[in-house]
Design a protein that fits this description.
Blueprint (H helix, E strand, L loop, with lengths): L1 E6 L20 E5 L7 E3 L5 H7 L6 E5 L23 E7 L7 H6 L17 E7 L2 E5 L2 E7 L8 E6 L4 E5 L19 H7 L4 E5 L7 H4 L7 H11 L3 E5 L7 H10 L6 E3 L5 E3 L1
Parallel strand pairs: 3-4, 4-5, 5-6, 10-11, 11-12, 12-13
Antiparallel strand pairs: 1-2, 1-14, 2-3, 7-8, 8-9, 9-10
Helix pairs in contact: 3-5
Bound molecules: zinc ion (ZN) (2 copies).
Length: about 280
């Protein structure tokens, strides 16, 4: 499979000269089979706009899976030109809402007047909306495993996507310290995180904080980058991409993060526009 990093920023977009090399778009990863255009998209942050360019004028036909409904994971939806046209066919899936709400209703709570001019139904093309329960399911030729992970403010899933040959684990928003400090103080290496990352060729993981920021900011729902690296080692993941960067984290600061893990060739700091073949 081919993986396109279309948005690796967390919380809110980060435009500006200090954010050019790693990029300012929020969470979005597009996955393509070896022989075709992207047809599975993980999260619909503002990076979703870049997927239109990858399709080279064609409409999107495939599935968008959301980890959760925070703004930085959905705000690209109405600006996805390849999905908002009459010949598009899009299945949008999100974690099963709590209570008696449908997936479309919970999405529309944040995307409808007066917050935004249109509802999800206002997108052109053939859109369908569905809820995911934890466990395995099939999506556009890929096998996906959903597991709930601790974050903050709303049910949040991590995913593991496999094409039968390679696998990628995607956990962009994760607060493992919510379950306790764990063996090294970075948070618990809990069974769901370990299962998602176990033996994966690639782990794309939340690396929002520096260790010195954890005491003040750890309750905001994100871990230190060190947790992601340690999780990958413990789970036997082949590579780890540190992602969901703090919005004020400059390119130079992200270079410093990369330098801190230089001794381990399996660790890379995620940058927008990066392409990974598995
Ligand atoms: Zn986020
Ligand atoms: Zn979040």
């Amino acid at each position: 499979m081919r993986i396109y990093l279309c948005g690796v920023r967390g919380s809110t977009p980060a435009p500006g000269a200090e954010f050019v090399r790693y990029g300012g778009h929020t969470s979005c990863v597009a996955i393509a089979p070896d022989d075709g255009p992207p047809r599975l998209i993980l999260d619909a942050g503002t990076g979703l706009r870049l997927v239109t360019g990858l399709l080279r004028g064609a409409p999107f036909a495939g599935t968008i899976i959301l980890t959760h409904l925070h703004w930085d994971h959905v705000h690209g939806l109405p600006f996805f030109a390849a999905g908002d046209r009459e010949d598009a066919r899009v299945t949008l899936l999100l974690p099963e809402p709590e209570g008696n709400t449908t997936a479309e209703e919970v999405l529309a709570q944040g995307m409808s007047p007066p917050h935004f001019p249109i509802t999800p139904r206002g997108l052109r093309g053939e859109w369908s909306f569905g809820a995911i329960a934890p466990g395995p399911f099939k999506a556009d030729g890929f096998t996906v495993e959903a597991r709930e992970v601790p974050h903050k403010g709303g049910r949040t899933f991590g995913y593991r996507v496999s094409d039968g040959h390679s696998s990628v684990a995607y956990i962009p928003d994760h607060c493992p310290t919510a379950l306790g400090p764990g063996p090294d103080g970075w948070g618990e290496y809990h069974p769901d995180a370990l299962a998602l990352a176990a033996g994966a060729d690639l782990l794309i993981h939340d690396a929002f904080l520096r260790p010195d920021e954890v005491p003040a900011l750890g309750s905001f729902g994100h871990p230190a980058a060190d947790y992601a690296v340690s999780l990958a080692r413990r789970a036997g993941a082949g590579r780890v991409l540190l992602a969901h960067h703090k919005p004020d984290r400059t390119d130079d600061e992200l270079d410093a993060l990369a330098a801190r893990f230089r001794a381990d060739p399996r660790v890379t700091v995620a940058a927008e526009g990066q392409l990974i073949d598995l």
